[in-house]
User: What shape does this take?
Amino acid sequence: MTIAEMLTQSAILTVLGMLVVFSFLVILIACMNLLRTAVHAFKLDQVATKAETPVAAATPAVDEKAIVAAIATALHEKNN
Assistant: This one.
């Protein structure tokens, strides 16, 4: 097998490989577009909105003054 024959064969294999990849990408894009139209047709892309009752502002579960007093006591004891 000569160099020219090997280069010809490698060029053919390269083009064939690129055509396989290109055809796969075309099929993939076609399937995605088909899926998109099916989702729109069956209205699966709409998010159901639920009416939620408004929640009152969260009140702290613990007394903030008690926390401040505990921190002040800890600092006072640390300094003494």
Observations:
- The CA atoms of residues 64 and 70 lie 10 Å apart.
- Residues 3-41 form the longest helix (39 residues).
